Amino acid sequence: MDQNKLKQLVGREAVKYVEDGMTIGLGSGTTVKYMVDTLGEKNKKEHLNLMCVTTSKKTAKQATNLGLTVKELDQVDEINLTIDGADEVDHDFNGIKGGGAALLWEKIVAKNSNRNIWIVDENKMVNHLGKFPLPVEVIPFGSKHLFRELQKMSLNPRFRTNVASALVKTDSGNYIIDLNIGNITDPIKLAEDLKGLTGVVEHGLFIHIVDEVIVGTNDGVRIVNKK
Ligand SMILES: O=C[C@H](O)[C@H](O)[C@H](O)COP(=O)(O)O
């Protein structure tokens, strides 16, 4: 099955978890885009009473255009369920996120959600994290110095740039440095090390955050629950 079809499949499946009256966290990325489209349709058809909190300005715009009610995180008491994409997921249910530079808001929303579901295609299920470069969101001030520190740690950093070769800015106005590490043998230790660096706002390692993963395969959808 073509990758977009898989993204659509898992997006549709995830929307089945949305119930009337819920406050829903909407992730970011190309897979989530399909999910939000389906949620918009469901909302219109079933006249649901939903509130949505988004993890990026892009998702907020899409959701608003579809007629979904979008609130700021601080305007809601709790988020019942967040549905997001991921770049890699390992067997311990740890993941890498931030391929679309939305990792900071995504992590804040996820940590404030009662339940987190990720929607991915099966190529993203891996034995070890790290083939996908690990995104790190950093404060622009002094970021070249931080970059050198990451080099000294042998983490193969690279500033993320856009098609015009300009530095990518996140929705919070920060830069992204991608770490090309290869196999991450100890994600928990790496997460701690990165958080210990002054200037690092957040990293894309999502440790023990997701509860359930909806995996799109050529044979249909597979649901993987945390053990
Ligand atoms: O910053 C972006 C997010 O973490 C995305 O959820 C992640 O990169 C997956 O995106 P996609 O569904 O486009 O592969």
From TrEMBL:
A Pfam family per the record: Rib_5-P_isom_A
Keyword annotations of the record: Isomerase
Origin superkingdom: Bacteria
EC number: 5.3.1.6
Gene Ontology cellular component annotations, sorted alphabetically: cytosol
Catalytic activity: aldehydo-D-ribose 5-phosphate = D-ribulose 5-phosphate
Keyword hit for Isomerase: yes
Listed GO biological process terms: D-ribose metabolic process; pentose-phosphate shunt, non-oxidative branch
Recorded metabolic or biological pathway in which this protein acts: Carbohydrate degradation; pentose phosphate pathway; D-ribose 5-phosphate from D-ribulose 5-phosphate (non-oxidative stage): step 1/1
Active site: E106
Ligand binding (substrate): S28, G29, T30, T31, D84, G85, A86, D87, K97, G98, G99, G100, K124
GO molecular function: ribose-5-phosphate isomerase activity
Signal sequence interval, chain numbering: none
InterPro entries in alphabetical order: NagB/RpiA_transferase-like, Ribose5P_isomerase_typA_subgr, Ribose5P_isomerase_type_A
Membership in a protein family: Belongs to the ribose 5-phosphate isomerase family.
PANTHER family: RIBOSE-5-PHOSPHATE ISOMERASE (PTHR11934)
HAMAP family cross-referenced by the UniProt entry: Rib_5P_isom_A (MF_00170)
Function text: Catalyzes the reversible conversion of ribose-5-phosphate to ribulose 5-phosphate.
Subunit description: Homodimer.
Protein name as it appears in the record: Ribose-5-phosphate isomerase A
